[in-house]
């Protein structure tokens, strides 16, 4: 549980965190956690820093911490929502997108809120983008050359297998896997619902921009959302990144470089499409 002095140390670390002294805050959070001090008030910001720092070890640690945070004496409904969200992000970064989606869908049913709309909306886009990549990577079917005897034998075996499985299939009908278009439609519908929930949420607007840009392929429609997101939150990393790509397409190198450099002033999160390394590489290519 911890004592009075641990509480003071936690409050000091959270103030350091708020002021941007992430290194000092991380050191104190880690020390308190290793001592066994369990309070959501500092554990949740601790997991945010770990998620931003990245790496498999940190993502696994986030899951461990959040399981303890669920049982903290100060846990409340707002904390539980953040626990759901941060745990889902860790799962996503560990390559467990279906599990992350399930967690957030459960949280959405219990108590929809802005952070769930933002995070689940982005992950639906990632799911649709993933399906698109999988379809593009599928090898073209190659017709096999078989002798008449092989074909006859294969037909017999297939018929026997079909007869054996028929009763099982009748009892447990398969649910068809959603198509790529189904995934796109789901992402669009959900993000439009999120926009109805809050039409000035810059993250949701950026999500819709990314959906149209990266998945649907309608860059004209995408720019409408990016522009509005930029008006509301001029420093949003992904929005600046995509707007820079429009500038480059229009030959506006100076404007693009300015936007890309501005992204580097921000704090990258595990849910950013753009990465610091990728932007630095693009700036190098542009000679900036």
Give average pLDDT, whole number: 90
Largest sheet: none
Radius of gyration: 24 Å
Shape: globular
Q: How much strand?
A: under 5%
Describe the structure in brief.
By secondary structure, the protein is an all-alpha fold. The chain has a domain of 111 residues: Serine Threonine Protein Phosphatase 5, Tetratricopeptide repeat (Alpha Horseshoe), CATH 1.25.40.10.
Structure overview:
This protein is mostly helical and 288 residues long. The protein has 14 helices and no strands.
List the main descriptive attributes of the protein structure presented here:
288 residues; mainly alpha; 14 helices; globular
Give the SSE layout.
Layout (H helix, E strand, L loop, with lengths): L3 H15 L3 H14 L4 H14 L2 H14 L7 H17 L3 H14 L3 H24 L10 H24 L8 H18 L4 H15 L2 H14 L4 H13 L3 H11 L12 H10 L3
